[in-house]
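Worked Example 4.2. Consider the chain below.
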Amino acid sequence: MDLNKLLIFARIVEHKSFTKAAQLLGMDKSTISTKLSQLEADLGVRLLNRSTRSVNLTEAGAKYYEYCRQAVEIAEEAERFSSSLGDEAVGLLRISASNNFSKVIIESAIKPFMDANPKVEVEMIIEYRTADLVQENIDIAIRIGIGPLEDSSLIAQKVLTGNIGIYCAPSYIKKHGKIDSIDKLNNSKIVEFTVPGGPQVTMSKGDVLHKVITKSKDFKSNDLEAVKDASIAGLGVCILPKHSANDAIKSKELVEIFTDWQIEPLTVYAVYASREWMPEKLRVFLKYLKELDKNLLK
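Applying the procedure from the previous section yields the following structure tokens:
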């Protein structure tokens, strides 16, 4: 099957003119007419009724056009995709991220990337689950503290680390007393941040190493802002990236505890599918992520 004949037929139908179709395709009108006649001969049916003034679909032609239209659309989509594999960053870049780090990524990476690459469109999908990058056509995911990747076709690249603090509201201390020992921390209510592959918080002081138990029977959320708000409301102790808690500390809605302990930093990864031919748009965006200021989350 000569796919060019399908394209020619589709353009004639869309423009209702052999002349306009020929101009659009950069071909002679006689070539257009010959190709259409060959297509009709191949199919054994007449597709168009044409006169000197009009071009109209036959019943068979109307049904066949629907298949041609879909084939042409798929071919054009494939052509647009192939252009994104070249040397120029073009096309749609789909990014999956949680709301917790979207502001940082937008301001520090996405905006300068789009300013420098005007032919790229960006779609950010805000979600709190581990998306299937391949099945959902996502180019890259920004994930927090992931463990080993179950899918061997994925690559995880560390892009940021951030300091973590342990916080609670003054009202919580007033009600339950000062939290100044590991035993008291273990017996405190923890506002849990639930996210797939979330980090295990480890803290140390001298030779003492402690893993914080974050499983909560009371209040939990997959959104760090909700975790912070719940802790401010006095529902319990929370563990937050320090950049997320700064405003609440300044307003005295939260107080930081265990400040004399060292807490293992939070790690943010860029996860993307391994592929032999990486689209230029993704390769360039990864470069912007690699060049992020490492103090963004300090």
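The chain has three domains: 3-83, 91-161+267-290, 164-264. Residues 59-83 form the longest helix (25 residues). Compare this with Example 4.1 before moving on.
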